[in-house]
Design goal:
Nucleotidyltransferase, domain 5; 3 domains; six-stranded mixed β-sheet; five-stranded mixed β-sheet; elongated
């Protein structure tokens, strides 16, 4: 039976309420998100006390969230507070008032706990196995080392974008002397974290509103064709360029920057300089964005409670299955089409020569090719592509997501082409697209009756004479399947540059 969980993250700059519907360990999806800018740390300065206006903004947001949860009948609520409340001398009384007004039991996270949950979200969003996670918020930055796919040692530093703007740069055009002071402060804070250094094979994943917005700005400048930031790679050169540009600009001038959120125009310069310093110190030349963070990390601790660690053992398998289950497509038909597709991929490897990294993309496309059926039959291939493209698929890079979406789009008709997504592809991807689409399409029509009557395929190659025979191994009457599949061999035939014939064979009970 499905359960619902609301998670509230009261940060230094923004607060968010998210609601998940889930079946533990099997399936989940986000059903609601509300975001409010509260600027809880604003004006704290060196006095280290939450100011009256910030307290009222925070309390009003919590009252609103409590009203929402009551109206939705959500009793399971986890509320956390982080850097601003943690640092404030009057933070305890603020949380006591929240407790009295809402009935919740707010949890004040330590810096290490904040880093741990942020890292959990990032690991389950990107699949990072070795390296570091940086979570830079409004009041602090958490650096977490990741080894063996699990969070390890962590440190929390006072490097949040709102805090740095408050203490050094202000909110409009900055003075060179202030930038120098900020950079010296950043270097001083990072000097003690000597273990935060890039090693061979390491990756750097970053999360938080600031870095997501930097990614959006970079995407707008490069006409990035997908509306997603998860797993987007932001180069160090781009970060340095934005860090060097934004502090020279007034807030009004920054507001004109394509991709910049209006409510971050006054603090983006401090965040950009902080990330530039983090990259310089660590030696990484790029960072990967995680859309997921602390809230998701808290959720995964609940969702994966029966596992030794709240991290997916195989994110790239779970992510497509989770999406398929949302649309009731984790079914016998989808799995059988996928199995036939993979048999074709494996048996035709000597002729197609594709790298093994394309195999999991074909698997994911097979599992998801029919999710658009929940909207419409006739155009379900287009709906499937749209859903995949806009669902994100944690664990897959943008180029991989684009390939999976296109394979779903062309699984039943049309000549495969990348179109606007071609900007994400290299030459091998362009060659792979029609090959993989041809395999998936043939498998789909061999399963035309959704009865698994064609149990398996067997390929017989004669490269010297330029032909391929595909034997459909039947466990019954497959005349419909062979008739329709024979009419849909063209994409595979052209991409292999072979004459392809489809023949009937007998299933003798071998293992698939």
């Amino acid at each position: 039976m499905s359960q619902r969980l609301a998670i509230i993250d009261l940060g230094s700059n923004t607060t968010r309420l998210v609601v998940y519907e889930y079946q533990p360990g099997y399936h989940f999806h986000l059903v609601e998100e509300v975001r409010e800018v509260v600027r809880l740390r604003e004006g704290m300065g060196n006095g280290m006390a939450l100011r009256a206006a910030a307290i009222e903004r925070g309390q009003q947001a919590m009252r609103m969230f409590a009203s929402f949860c009551r109206s939705q009948g959500i009793d399971d609520v986890v509320m956390t507070a982080t850097s601003a409340v943690r640092d404030a001398r009057n933070g305890d009384s603020f949380l006591a008032r929240v407790r009295a007004e809402t009935g919740w039991a707010p949890r004040l996270l330590s810096g290490e706990e904040e880093g741990y949950f942020g890292a959990l979200g990032a690991l389950n969003g990107t699949g990072l196995a070795e390296g570091f996670v940086v979570d830079l918020g409004g009041g602090s930055a958490q650096i977490v080392e990741v080894r063996g796919g699990l969070p390890g040692r962590a440190v929390s530093l006072p490097l949040g974008a709102l805090r740095l703007s408050d203490l050094f740069l202000g909110y409009d055009r900055a003075k060179p002397a202030a930038v120098e002071q900020l950079n010296a402060f950043l270097a001083e804070q990072l000097a003690g974290v000597d273990w935060f250094r890039a090693q061979p094979g390491d990756g750097l994943v970053a999360l938080g509103g600031t870095v997501r917005n930097l990614a959006r700005i970079d995407q707008a400048a490069t006409s990035f064709p997908l509306d997603m930031v998860n797993s987007y790679v932001l180069s160090g050169a781009s970060v340095q360029e934005m860090a060097g540009r934004f502090w020279h600009m007034s807030q009004k001038e920054r507001l004109k920057t394509p991709g910049l959120d209006n409510d971050r125009a006054d603090i983006i310069q401090s965040g950009a300089l902080a990330f530039a310093a983090l990259l310089r110190h660590s030696g990484f030349d790029s960072l990967t964005i995680s859309q997921q963070g602390l809230r998701e990390g808290i959720f995964y601790q609940r969702f994966l409670a029966d596992q030794p660690q709240p991290v997916f053992a195989d994110l790239r398998q779970f992510s497509p299955l989770n999406l398929a289950r949302k649309f009731d497509c984790d079914n016998v038909h989808s799995r059988h089409v996928t199995a036939l597709s993979l048999q074709l991929f494996d048996q035709l490897q000597p002729v197609h020569g594709l790298d093994a990294s394309y195999r999991p993309l074909l698997w994911a496309a097979g599992m998801l090719h029919d999710i658009g059926m929940s909207i419409d039959f006739y155009y379900h291939h287009h709906h499937s592509a749209y859903i995949i493209q806009n669902s994100g698929l944690p664990g897959y890079a943008p180029r991989e997501l684009a390939m999976i979406a296109l394979l779903a789009q062309y699984h039943r008709k049309g000549s495969p082409k990348a179109g606007p997504l071609a900007a994400l592809f290299n030459a091998e991807d362009q060659r792979a697209l029609p090959l993989l689409a041809g395999m998936l399409r043939l498998a789909e029509f061999l399963e035309r009756g959704r009865s698994q009557v064609v149990r398996a395929v067997r390929c017989h190659l004669d490269l010297a004479n330029g032909w391929l025979q595909i034997e459909a191994l039947e466990a019954g009457d497959a005349r419909m399947e062979l008739w329709d599949a024979s009419r849909n061999l063209d994409v595979l035939q052209r991409s292999l540059n072979l004459h392809v014939e489809l023949v009937s064979g007998v299933w003798l009970g071998e293992e698939e």
